[in-house]
Write a structure and sequence with these properties.
- The protein is of the alpha/beta class.
- The protein folds into 2 domains: about 5-120, Rossmann fold, CATH 3.40.50.2300; about 125-225, Arc Repressor Mutant, subunit A, CATH 1.10.10.
- Helix content is about 40%, strand content about 20%.
- The protein has helices at about 10-25, 40, 60-65, 85-90, 105-120, 150-160, 170-180, 185-200; strands at about 5, 25-30, 45-50, 75-80, 95-100, 125-130, 130-135, 140, 145, 210, 215-220.
- The protein has a 5-stranded parallel sheet with strand order 2-1-3-4-5, with helices on both faces. A 4-stranded antiparallel sheet has the order 6-7-8-9, covered by helices on one side.
- Helix 4 links the parallel strand 4 and strand 5 (about 95-100).
- Helix 6 packs across helix 7.
- The longest helix has 16 residues, at about 105-120.
- It is globular, with a radius of gyration of 18 Å.
- The N and C termini lie far apart (about 40 Å).
Length: about 230
């Protein structure tokens, strides 16, 4: 059964979240601060729920510190309403965020959706526009060199690439990738797409097209050379 770590300086919130997720069968540990948590310790967990505004080390700094070694989803818990601040966290390696106050039903749905995605083990790979997507490894390569996608970025890019030429709205992408449809998640998709484009640009690739007023699509394969 997956193990989850919840980090928040609100003891009452930690108790509520732990009770809710424990009822779903997860093993849940809690911490009031991230400062003493090492990346190695976090490897024992399949998902992290992290408050952004904490004394000492905030959630953004913690995410940035462990992300290179922790491979699972990181979901931010935040009272911030500024989209610029929220998408910054996604740019640092976060996969999703839940705005406070949130319902326990929403929390459980988000956590379940992310862990469902983690448990799937596709056995095939495919190449689009010069990018090789290895779905069993959840990694992407260009000419044998790994693209440093986060999990959320990989899932978004892989989904678009699997259906070249098909246009998706931000809401459809969020639901397809994370399995949970909710309002207010446009910023998460937008930031992930921005990061994907920046990382592909390092390889002189630009296969993701914005369809103004609608969403995004991956250009049809014949437009870009494959290797």
């Amino acid at each position: 059964m997956p193990k989850i770590l919840v980090i928040d300086d609100d003891q009452d919130l930690l108790l509520l979240v732990k009770q809710a997720l424990t009822r779903d069968g997860y093993t849940v540990d809690t911490a009031l601060s991230s400062q003493q948590l090492t990346a190695s310790a976090c490897r024992f967990y399949q998902l992290l729920l992290v408050d952004i505004m904490m004394p000492g080390e905030d959630g953004f700094a913690f995410c940035q510190r462990i992300r290179r070694e922790f491979d699972g989803p990181i979901i931010f818990l935040t009272a911030k309403t500024n989209d610029a601040a929220l998408v910054r966290g996604l740019g640092l390696g976060g996969d999703d965020y839940i705005k406070k106050p949130f319902s326990l039903a929403e929390l459980r749905a988000r956590v379940n959706a992310h862990l469902r995605r983690e448990s799937r083990q596709p056995l095939h790979a495919y190449e689009r526009s010069g990018v090789l997507f290895n779905l069993s490894e959840k990694k992407a390569y260009v000419k044998g060199k790994s693209i440093p996608f986060t999990k959320g970025e990989f899932q978004l890019a892989a989904h678009l690439a699997q259906h070249p030429g098909q246009v998706y709205t931000k809401e459809q992408l969020y639901e397809a990738v994370f399995g949970f449809d909710a309002s207010g998640d446009d910023a998460a998709v937008t930031e992930h797409i921005k990061n994907i484009r920046a990382k592909l640009k390092e390889f002189s690739l630009a296969p993701i097209v914005t369809v103004w007023g609608v969403g995004y699509k991956w250009q049809k394969e014949e437009v870009f050379p494959t290797y």
